[in-house]
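Ops channel
N.P.: pipeline sanity check, posting one input/output pair.
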């Protein structure tokens, strides 16, 4: 390998690719290494929703604020990525209907419709008749829905590839099929690069964006003796499937309880997702599929007759507080991390890149950067 980059990004999921893009856009020399293909991990499995309020419009805090920032920037970001990369991430501001399956849910969602005008999401309540006028396929028993017209979805693998190719168009080196085996450290413990089968690659800074494999990679690399334990990132399996869409299909995402239906541009509906703590087991199970296949027609009965297209699973990287870890690795000079985005990595990829680039260049960073700082799990951190 040749010339040392300023920054070496490890992991070509949506997060690592976004970090590479933001750095390249700021004129930083960057190399992105991915051991498989781009979006080989969770980013290849995701439903791709950009849904800052998640399952509950009552949610607040840094995740909400970071998500709203990401959502606000989506039109301009996707246009820029399309121009730079020639890849369309298929961003659709489809809106999300969070449906009420009983009176208690209806009361809760109806209250949320008018509670948060400051979010700028233009939330509104649709009663049963208005809901069925909007989405005739929704089940008759559904009481109504919270309409959130500004949320939407992308094709997550396309977003990752668009970030990476756009970064490459600005001079970044993007190498797939190259696994990082260890970090290279000097006698003082400062990280000076990464070790691969092809040799050592020196770098001014290494950013670990290896999803659920981040802790193991740091541990194997000897990044600060206890630091892999100090940055707890656990895998949370998500199983998800796709069906041929009924015709005419849904226009909006329909979300009821823990099940969501995302109508994609290729004529499919993605049905997600399970949330399971089963370690690094990324298999699809009969029980997982049965749960999704039972739940989907309860929201949209026509789905029961639709052709099954396929199913897959991914491992969400999750910290105990469900906030991402973005910034300097506590106690190790020359090492950053951007991982642990749990259910929001697609949504928060761009904001994560913005934070890393800001920290690297000493520029202003979004306010959520403080809440996402890995130091909260360090020896003296508040969440340690
Ligand atoms: C079923 C499911 C549905 C989801 N739906 C959504 C959604 O609708 N919206 C949303 O925002 N989020 C969603 N998520 C969450 C989202 O997918 C993740 O938060 C996000 O993809 C994490 O991205 P990442 O780049 O950190 O990790 P990953 O995508 O896992 O990428 C890590 C990469 O690092 C590489 N790597 C690992 N070790 C090494 C090494 N030693 N050397 C080189 N490369 C290495 C891996 O091959 C991998 O490509 C969903 C997740 C799942 C599983």
């Amino acid at each position: 390998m040749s010339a040392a980059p300023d920054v070496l990004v490890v992991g070509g999921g949506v997060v690592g690719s976004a970090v590479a893009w933001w750095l390249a856009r700021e004129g930083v020399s960057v190399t992105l290494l991915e051991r498989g293909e781009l979006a080989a991990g969770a980013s290849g499995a995701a439903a791709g929703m950009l849904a800052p309020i998640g399952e509950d419009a009552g949610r607040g805090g840094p995740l909400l604020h970071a998500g709203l920032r990401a959502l606000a920037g989506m039109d301009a970001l996707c246009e820029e990525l399309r121009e730079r990369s020639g890849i369309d991430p298929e961003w659709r501001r489809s809106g999300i209907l969070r449906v009420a399956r009983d009176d208690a849910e209806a009361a809760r969602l109806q209250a949320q419709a008018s509670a948060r005008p400051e979010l700028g999401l233009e939330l509104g309540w649709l009663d049963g008749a208005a809901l069925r006028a909007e989405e005739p396929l929704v089940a008759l028993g559904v009481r109504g829905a919270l309409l959130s017209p500004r949320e939407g979805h992308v094709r997550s693998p396309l977003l990752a590839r668009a970030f990476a190719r756009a970064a490459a168009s600005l001079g970044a080196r993007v190498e797939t099929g190259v696994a990082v085996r260890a970090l290279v450290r000097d006698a003082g413990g400062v990280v000076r690069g990464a070790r691969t089968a092809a040799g050592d690659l020196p770098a001014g800074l290494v950013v670990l964006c290896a999803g659920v494999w981040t802790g193991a990679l740091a541990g194997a690399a000897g990044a600060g003796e206890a630091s892999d334990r100090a940055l707890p990132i656990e895998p949370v399996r998500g199983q998800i499937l796709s069906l041929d869409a009924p015709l005419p299909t849904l226009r909006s995402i329909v979300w009821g309880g823990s099940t969501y239906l995302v109508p994609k541009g290729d004529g499919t509906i993605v049905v997600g997702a399970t949330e399971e703590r089963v370690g690094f087991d990324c298999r699809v199970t009969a029980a997982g599929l049965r749960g999704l296949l039972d739940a989907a027609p309860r929201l949209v009965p026509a789905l029961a007759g639709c052709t099954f297209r396929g199913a897959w699973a991914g491992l969400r990287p999750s910290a105990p507080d469900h906030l991402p870890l973005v910034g300097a690795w506590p106690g190790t000079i020359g090492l950053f991390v951007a991982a642990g985005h749990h259910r929001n990595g697609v949504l928060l990829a761009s904001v994560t890149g913005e934070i890393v680039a800001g920290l690297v260049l000493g520029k202003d960073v979004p306010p959520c950067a403080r809440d996402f700082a890995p130091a909260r799990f360090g020896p003296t951190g508040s969440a340690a």
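N.P.: looks fine end to end. The radius of gyration is 21 Å.
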